[in-house]
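Much of what follows relies on a compact textual record of a protein's fold. A complete example follows; check for yourself that the lines match position by position.
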Amino acid sequence: MVLVALDLDGTALDSNGRLSQSVAEAIRQRAKSKKYIFAFCSGRPLSGVLPQAQAVGIAENYHVLANGALVQNGAGDRLVEELLDFSAYQELTNYCCENGLTCIAVNDRGAITAFPSINLGTLEFCFLTNNLLRFCPISESEPTEKYSKLLICDNPDIIKQNKSRVEQRFSKHYTCVEGYPTMIEFGKKNVSKGSSLAKLAAYYGLSDSEVFVVGDNDNDLSSFERFSQSIAMGNATSELKQAANWHCPTNDEDGVVTALKMIDNFIT
């Protein structure tokens, strides 16, 4: 038995955010076999992953969510929970206020922001994750709240201009990744897709050699560094391609279908 961890955006989903029939069927067929366990390994929270998991028949499986902050199944049961405190949200909100940026926080109740204006990055996040955005001034927020992730959201050019400065300011205390061109995502320090995927593999009693990872972006790098049986999409970043053992076609060419055929060769 092997665990196959698939990223969603840019990997299982095409550039329009759709799960093609070919990719869906390739996952669905193998998920019925006792040889495979599938997990989506995404920056999205459960609300953004569950529809895709339901579509391929793996909703009951555990999935690595919010860049590793949660390992959770469709019923809401959790194996891993590494959440940020209110103080982190307050710190990031203060920084954004001082620097003309916008941030949002994400937890089980959805997405929340202390900023009344809406930008492209905020809209994209809510669309991708099936979330409504709730406005609440920081002074009225509940200090006992915890969050799976925090994000700075804006237009791609604003994110690009601020990325290095933001990382320099926060990377000592938080995990900072750019999952999308419109977002810089923050998680608990030393928590990543790779660290939580390792815990999921241990839960299933699987060794590193029984785990395969497929991805396209730098937030998949921790998984590629943790597990050597890694496959980079044709549209992957150059850094991820360098870290990968193998490569497959792009997400718009149903590259995951090819990746799964490659994995078939290892287990048959």
